[in-house]
Write a structure and sequence with these properties.
The chain has 321 residues and is an all-beta fold. The protein has 3 domains: 50-138, Immunoglobulins (Immunoglobulin-like, Sandwich); 147-224, Immunoglobulin-like (Sandwich), CATH 2.60.40.10; 234-315, Immunoglobulin-like (Sandwich). It is built from no helices and 28 strands. Strands 5, 7, 8, 9, 12, 13, 15 and 18 form an 8-stranded mixed β-sheet that branches. Strand 19 and strand 20 form a beta hairpin. The radius of gyration is 39 Å and the shape is rod-shaped.
Length: 321
């Protein structure tokens, strides 16, 4: 009886092929004593599949007995080693022989082209015997193409793309990170029909296949929309005091503001001061007179539209005794 055993060591994990224990005999120059127990492959079994990550080191272990006269390693039909003679030109491949009964193959920096069947072949005076391991190389997910940041108008149809490679094939998921970061219904293509202003923000594409940490890329989406005046503040002011009117609008791009009294556009003067602070504008009227009381119009505009609102400067009367 004779036999071999295959064990794959993957940094930092070792994975055994299934090998029942048998008692094997070995005789030959410099060999250990007969009757040394080693592990042997049950040759009725199918080829074992072993999985390793790209870039790791694989050691495919082969243990032989002392009746072996010739040993070799093959990948598919190509001879890698015949005895201690290296036939392969690949510098990443060498033998591991920690003891006279071990004849193991080491492959450093494993890549996808290393995937395939590896055979440890043994020849004795009686017969030849082989055992195989099929090496499966996994590749971490990697996003190689994703949409550029985009600016669109509200109501447009938008398609974001995210392409990834890996083995096994990665799963692709999308999230809009603000405000809730809930998952979105999409894969390589994320379709947004009639995009709204609340769908603007940072979109996350994640590719994962459980080989390593997921790969993540981001797409920033800006949604343009016309102004909406959401807050106005009229004022009650005494004669001779400062009157203040305030108007706030939301828009992308940021709105421009104008103030009107009846049909006349107002501008900064000795008695009028107009301030614009982002999305808010303030109209200040110094030393209010009777002629200043009445209706004022705030106009907010950008290239997508215009909206206006009416505000009032009321006279504040103070009761006298």
């Amino acid at each position: 009886m004779f036999g071999i055993c295959l064990l794959l060591t993957v940094s930092p994990v070792s994975v055994f092929g299934c090998c029942p224990l048998t008692r094997l005999l070995y005789r030959g120059p410099g060999s250990p004593r007969a009757g040394f127990p080693v592990r042997s492959v049950d040759m009725q079994r199918t080829t074992d599949n072993i999985t390793i990550r790209q870039g790791d080191t694989a050691v495919i272990r082969c243990y032989v007995d002392d009746k072996v006269s010739r040993v070799a390693w093959l990948n598919r039909s190509n001879i890698i080693f015949a005895g201690s003679d290296k036939w392969s030109l690949d510098p990443r491949v060498d033998l591991v022989t920690k003891g006279q009964l071990e004849y193991s193959l080491r492959i450093q920096k494993v890549d996808v082209f290393d995937e395939g069947s590896y055979t440890c072949s043994i020849q004795t005076k009686q017969q030849a015997k082989t055992s195989q391991v099929y090496l499966i190389v996994q590749v971490p997910a990697s996003i190689y193409k994703v949409s550029e940041d985009i600016i669109v108008n509200e109501g447009s149809n938008v398609t974001l793309t995210c392409f990834a490679s890996g083995r096994p094939e990665p799963a692709i998921t999308w999230r809009l990170l603000n405000p809730s970061a809930d998952p979105l219904d999409g894969d390589e293509y994320l379709d947004i029909i009639g995009i709204m202003r609340n769908q603007a923000g940072r979109y996350e594409c994640k590719a994962s296949n459980d080989v390593a940490m997921p790969d993540v890329k981001y797409v920033n989406v800006v949604v343009n929309y016309p102004p909406t005046i959401k807050k106005t503040q009229s004022s009650e002011t005494q004669v001779g005091r400062m009157g203040t009117l305030q108007c706030e609008a939301t828009a992308v791009p940021t709105p421009e503001f104008e103030w009107y009294r009846d049909e006349k556009r107002l501008s900064n003067s000795q008695s009028i001061n107009i301030q614009i602070l982002g999305t808010t504008t303030i109209l200040m009227i110094a030393n209010v007179t009777d002629e200043d009381y009445g209706n004022y119009t705030c106009v907010a505009s950008n290239r997508l539209g215009v909206q206006n609102a009416s505000l009032f400067l009321y006279i504040l009367t103070v009761a006298t005794r």
